[in-house]
């Protein structure tokens, strides 16, 4: 099994053949995504199944990766795991898109080959949060430790649990 995914595909042909693709796409190869991430290291694991439901050609896919987004509070990088699946119905007109009966998003196909990379990139861009933010209170951490603002913390006293432990002790 090859890890390499083709970029340009004919989705109708793949659907006729009930093809299945799986492999990886380099994060660095997705140019539009570059504006939203602070590091383009790493891969996106992709699985795509092509099928037909009656006459309707359908693409069902999933992707898994971890992106480095910029936290909008502290402006430091944060890793943002992404694991999503999508289902697309191939249509050739808006009318067909309206008439999609099965539960999937329309994918316009005008006979020209479709870029699998762009398709995956679209799904990722749709899933990106508007306002990425660390789950913990990262500003509190940085303001209480100004000297350490630029670097990653190598200091155990920054551990929020040590504060909790102290509180517990004094409470007794
Ligand atoms: Zn933050």
Automatic annotation (TrEMBL):
Keyword terms of this UniProt record: Ribosome biogenesis
InterPro entries: YceD, YceD_bac
GO BP term, example: ribosome biogenesis
General function of this protein: Plays a role in synthesis, processing and/or stability of 23S rRNA.
Keyword Metal-binding: no
GO CC terms, sorted: cytosol
Name of the featured protein: Large ribosomal RNA subunit accumulation protein YceD
Pfam families from the UniProt entry: YceD
Domain of life: Bacteria
Similarity-based family: Belongs to the DUF177 domain family.
């Amino acid at each position: 099994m090859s890890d390499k995914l083709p970029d340009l595909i004919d989705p109708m042909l793949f659907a006729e053949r009930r093809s299945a693709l799986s492999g990886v796409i380099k994060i660095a190869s997705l140019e539009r995504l570059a504006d939203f991430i602070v590091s383009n290291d790493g891969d996106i694991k992709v699985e795509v199944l092509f099928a037909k439901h009656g006459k309707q050609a359908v693409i069902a896919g999933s992707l898994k990766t971890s992106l480095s987004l910029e936290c909008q509070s502290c402006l430091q990088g944060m890793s943002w795991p992404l694991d999503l699946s999508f289902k697309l119905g191939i249509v050739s007109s808006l009318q067909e898109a309206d008439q999609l009966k099965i539960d999937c998003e329309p994918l316009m196909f005008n006979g020209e080959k479709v870029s699998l990379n762009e398709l995956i990139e679209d799904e990722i861009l749709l899933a990106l949060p508007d306002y990425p933010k660390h789950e913990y209170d990262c500003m509190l951490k940085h303001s209480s430790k100004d000297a350490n603002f630029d670097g990653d913390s190598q200091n155990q006293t920054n551990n929020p649990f040590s504060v909790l432990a102290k509180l517990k002790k004094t409470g007794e």
